[in-house]
């Protein structure tokens, strides 16, 4: 074992860690990261983690269930998912903020109980010392505005003790009750002066705190600064009261303990996000304008405004067929509507699309007396989701518009929102079925909850590998319902055409993926039924190594040969079949003895149908 390879604590070490952790929590030194939760929604989340049900997990996370809580047996959702071997469920929990910190009892316990190394390595990747808080990208962007030179987004200069900083009114108003009141009374203010008695270091620490930056551990004082250490800390206390940010001194004096620092930092960022969210809901969404599309150009919004907006974003309703007024007179209904959102360039810079636009020489880059209206090619509902994410890092939306969000995020180069949309589609779109349950099902002809073909094409257009894999698995586990449809044939044809200068011997990516997951689907069933053991009994021991090297398709084909029961044989024993229960038929209508034989025959039939499809399409793969 390498010297720097992380080790997992022994059971006795875990117990000692638990005792020490409970003692610190009782003393109030640290907070309990995993509070006890006896609510029904949390119980449902835990059950979903045991079963690997991604759909229910995503729904409960969207409802706000605490992913770091614990049940009466001290199990967290992440421990349950790791213990039961559900890699994708564990990944979803980690992406949603589940903690796995090495120096905590629950973190070490999670690693200790991980079913396999793949899950254990995933947990180590998300250890706090190696990863960031889910809100860190938002905090990092707001902090970066203090030093960003282009494009210029600052709209006020605040001065204290001959030190001046170019700041943003909407951030100051959202984070400080003092600035909220002062700027509401004078929104046109371009400069603001604070008392000269405040040391520059204290002033800088306060502004960095308002911009969600980490407070400095050591404040410069002494010779050369003009202020002693006591005067500097007194200045911090004074400016915290002046700007009404009472938690500033505590954040500076906080100890260097990693866990306490992390908890304090997370609390401050969460508080800042909530303040930005309140500002966004009240001032951006609360001041949106809905007008007829034909009158959009008549909208005028002065650059000096009470919410400090410096740009307007427009989204048009999707075009609909004209309808006549049922009430009579045959008068047409009102024309299409457009929604205009007052926004702040500083937050739109989180999108590379807007960052490039505002840094260019195009007309959209200039702030005029009347704000520029920028058209965004998406629906108002989708644009609201995008703005909510840019301002608050929140991204909760239903499956019905997830594909639209995916396309819009791709257009605006917002990679994290693209990933979120892919997660929503691949979890909520799993038709309420966990991967384990899907492995046991014998196909379905029920109507799909989603348009899987649109999702495949969206995955291709937006280059999201996660969605391509989801679509291939989705089709493989429901292949009976799709393989004979013209849409499926068109999909395979298009997948083949995506390879430039394709040769006859080249593989077809989508078809290969479907075959892989089809083999996985039936292999899981055969493994449960003990097919491998049954086959090994009839083989010589010296051939065992060769059998292990055979691929899944070969094993399954031999299983079919060993277990296939012809329709004619079944017809000679109608009375026996009737006594044993209802008839079981394969996809081709042939009677079989049991469900295991049905699976074996169906697997061979589906593979043959895939080969027939390739032949009809004149494709070789």
- Total number of β-strand segments? 9
Give the CATH H-level superfamily of the domain at 11-131.
Ankyrin repeat-containing domain
Q: Biggest sheet, in brief?
A: 4 strands, mixed
CATH topology group of the domain at 11-131: Serine Threonine Protein Phosphatase 5, Tetratricopeptide repeat
Judged by helices, strands and strand pairing, the structural class is mainly alpha
Strands of the widest sheet, in order across it, are 4-6-5-7
Q: What would the average pLDDT be, to the nearest integer? A: 77
What portion of the residues fall into strands of 2 or more residues? 5-15%
Which second-level CATH architecture of the domain at 11-131 applies?
Alpha Horseshoe
Can you count the helices?
A: 31
Low-confidence runs (pLDDT<50, min 5 residues)?
1-6, 128-132, 321-328, 431-446, 537-542, 562-578
Shape: flat
Secondary structure: helix percent:
40-55%
CATH class of the domain at 11-131: Mainly Alpha
N-to-C span: 43 Å
